[in-house]
């Protein structure tokens, strides 16, 4: 298998591989164009987001400075907002529902590295996808780790580090994030 095939299969892969690196460089270029575009030029920003992401619903908004690893692995629903300085390390798929707001300085990552020094010296990475449901508010300075699924109608409190799945209608916070309370769901669709 190539390193790119290993990466897509969720196996350990060399993140310095030329094919893997080419995907990142493409994302870096598109993110720079996006971040340098006038904030009031909604049509151009929308066009760039659709070039960058795998899919996007209506009215996606990415405030500067937005950074990602691939872009094509990001799929967002309608009314998506990523506030200032959001980073999504989408080595593999990140699926985000509709009506999701992400606070400033947030990191969503799908990549981890070995716990052994030899594995890290070999530049190995291993990936797990991240899924975020509908009607989710992620506060500022949040970190969401690989493999996490966040349900619908959830709030992730500012500064939380989400290491485990979050069930629907839940408020979590802390390091690591823990259950705080259930949330009312007043949407009946």
Number of helices: 4
Helix content: 10-25%
The fraction of residues assigned to DSSP E strands is 25-35%
Side by side, the strands of the main sheet go: 3-6-9-14-17-19-20
Please name the CATH topology: UDP N-Acetylglucosamine Acyltransferase, domain 1
Terminal CA distance reads: 45 Å
How would you describe this structure to a colleague?
This protein has one domain (3-181): Hexapeptide repeat proteins (UDP N-Acetylglucosamine Acyltransferase, domain 1, 3 Solenoid), CATH 2.160.10. Helices cover 22% and strands 28% of the residues. It is built from 4 helices and 20 strands. It has a 7-stranded mixed sheet with strand order 3-6-9-14-17-19-20. It has a 5-stranded parallel sheet with strand order 2-5-8-13-16, with no helix packed on it. The protein has a 5-stranded parallel sheet with strand order 4-7-10-15-18. A hairpin with a 4-residue loop joins strand 19 and strand 20. The longest helix is centred in the first third of the chain and has 19 residues, at 18-36. The protein starts with a helix and ends in a 7-residue tail after the last strand. The model has no long low-confidence stretch (mean pLDDT 95).
Question: What characteristics describe this protein?
Answer:
five-stranded parallel sheet; 4 helices; 28% strand; 189 residues; 22% helix
Quick overview:
The protein is α/β, with parallel strands linked by helices and 189 residues long. The protein contains four helices and 20 strands. It has a single domain, classed as Hexapeptide repeat proteins (UDP N-Acetylglucosamine Acyltransferase, domain 1), CATH 2.160.10.10.
